[in-house]
Amino acid sequence: MSQPDKAKKLTNLQYHVTAEKGTEPPGTGKYLYNRDKGTYNCIVCGSVLFSSQAKYDSTTPGLMGWPSFSEVASSKAVKLITDNSYGMTRTEAVCQKCGAHLGHLFDDERSPTGQHYCINSSALDFASKKTGKEPK
Ligand SMILES: [Zn+2]
Predict the structure, then answer these.
(1) What is the enclosing helix (H) or strand (E) of 12?
(2) What is the pTM of this model?
């Protein structure tokens, strides 16, 4: 089998999350407990969104079932949009480059930065860092 896999085909869940602003069931995401070093890229367009250095284990009730990041990889990586759906006002995080829905940003005093990006694993594609160099 030598299929070209340049254009990544999304699973139903990946499509539901990124295109339909869905949320994966808490505790099910494949990157929830990932501790490898590398970058988390947009599953749709490959844009670098988060660094493994900003990933942390959230202990905040209600926000514990998804990968947590304290900051974005660069200020241009993620776009924030006010989301008034479901009778709540939340801050939606989308990919700046392609507009894919990623998750939400919350204020969280338990986060190292006070900010908590609660991101669906389904919106992310992890690229492991194998340079042998410890990232600072
Ligand atoms: Zn994207």
Answers:
(1) helix 12-20
(2) 0.88
